[in-house]
C-alpha cells in the first residue's frame, strides 16, 4: 500500500504541473512577442489596422497551423521577417502563445 501511495505521488508531481508549465510558456511567449513581434504584428486577440503583417489571431485561425509549424517558421530565415535571436524554447513559447488564440 505504501508503494502505491508513493507511486501515485510521483505521478501527480510529474504530471500535475504540466498545465502550469504550459501557462508559463505561453506567458513567456506573450512577453517575447511584445518585445520582438509587436512592431509588425497585432499580438492581441483583435486586429489592429496599422500593422502591416497578419495578426497573431489571424495566424492562429488558419486551418493548417499548429505550434510546431509556427516554431519551425520562426527559426528558419525568410525574406518577410527579420532574423530574430530566438532559441528553440523561445520559438516554442511564442508558438504556444499564438496557438492559444485558436478558436
Structure description:
By secondary structure, the chain is an all-alpha fold. It has one domain: Cytochrome Bc1 Complex, Chain D, domain 2. The chain is 59% helix and 0% strand. It has helices spanning 2-16, 18-36, 56-61, 67-75, 88-99. Helix 2 packs across helix 5 and helix 4 (67-75) packs across helix 5 (88-99). Mean pLDDT is 79; it is low at 8-12 and 14-21.
Topology:
Layout: H1 2-16, H2 18-36, H3 56-61, H4 67-75, H5 88-99
Helix pairs in contact: 2-5, 4-5
Q: Tell me the number of strands.
A: 0
Second CATH tier, the architecture:
Orthogonal Bundle
Which quaternary structure do these chains form? single chain
Please give the count of helices: 5
- The Cα radius of gyration reads 17 Å
Unreliable sequence segments: 8-12, 14-21
Structure summary:
The protein is mainly alpha-helical and 103 residues long. The chain is built from five helices and no strands.
Keywords:
mainly alpha; single chain; 103 residues; Cytochrome Bc1 Complex, Chain D, domain 2; 0% strand
